[in-house]
Amino acid sequence: MIAAWLAAALLLVLQAAPAAPDPRRPAPTLDSVPPVVPELTHPAVLIVSKTNGYRHDSIAEAVPAIEGLAKARGWSSFATENAAVFNPRDLAKFDVIVFANASGDITTPDQRAAFQAFLSRGGGFVGLHSAGDGSHPDWFVRVRGNGNFIGHPGGADQFQAADIVALDRTHPATRTLPARWRWTDEYYSWDAEPAADAHILARLDESGMRLEPKLKMDTGHALIWWRCEGRARIFYSALGHQAAAWSDPAHLAMLDGAIGWAARQDGTGCD
Asked: What is the pLDDT of residues 57-83, one digit of tens each?
């Protein structure tokens, strides 16, 4: 009798206890006090990994990997999760902004305006993986240059090996890639291909994959592309969910080329 009463009491306590916060879905926040950004030499890379949407575990590997790419070039970099860095004074210190699995609507109206002004001056932007998910505001989706995110495979099919087909191997980001690159990732799908002004560098070969019908985009399943936003060089790659991606030499070489291009240190376009 006592044991049954204790079990019932414990059940009530457990039911009443608040659920533990999910570290992969943090409560959204907006920042008002900028971080202290040191004086930097140009070219300089701003690495942003703030998450007001899903938080990827691989951020812990992505940020130092991108810092390493900048260092290897002899460039400066600064990494932050404080979106108040989007202000005219601090953004003037940078040549390119990299979203390292940043997600969600992370900026206030003033911070958004500063970001857009940075782009209008010809600043570069590189969006990686979750910069393509469905958590971002409409204005950002337009800058990214494709449709609305509709999902990715789940369960046992979440991570699949597939061929990525390089359509343009003249761009700094893809010139070291093979024509067909075997890769394992969480592959995103959208409700539309990149806009007509986007230059598609690589697409997913869906043949042999296990995809729900709604996720299939056939030969239009672009994964890596660039476009111009005025003079700004905009680059997006859907790759990089898993931690292993951030130590893979081929992936890092692709990112290095993307950052160099977006910072206007290599390649052409958006002049």
From this structure: 999 999 999 999 999 999 999 999 999
Distances from the Cα of 264 to the Cα of 13, 55, 189, 224, 255, angstroms: 59, 30, 29, 18, 14
% of the chain surpassing 90 pLDDT:
90
The answer to whether residues 224 and 171 touch, using CB atoms and an 8 Å cutoff, is no
Q: How many Cβ atoms are within 10 Å of 216's Cβ, its own excluded?
A: 12
Q: pTM, whole model, 2 decimals?
A: 0.92
Strand, helix or coil for residue 244: helix
* Backbone phi and psi for residue 81, each to the nearest 5 degrees, phi listed first: -115, 20
Contact by Cβ (8 Å): 204, 187: yes
Mean pLDDT estimate for the chain = 94
Tokens in use for 81?
């999760």
- How is 70-124 classified by DSSP, letter by letter? HHHHT-EEEEES-GGG-SHHHHTT-SEEEEES-BS----HHHHHHHHHHHHTT-E
> What integer is the mean pLDDT of 179-185?
98
SS3 call for 60: helix
The confidence score (pLDDT) of residue 26 equals: 87
C-alpha 253/C-alpha 22 separation (Å) is 33
Angle between helices 249-262 and 59-73 (to 10 degrees): 60
Query: Is residue 22 within a helix (H) or strand (E), and if so which, with residue range?
Result: none
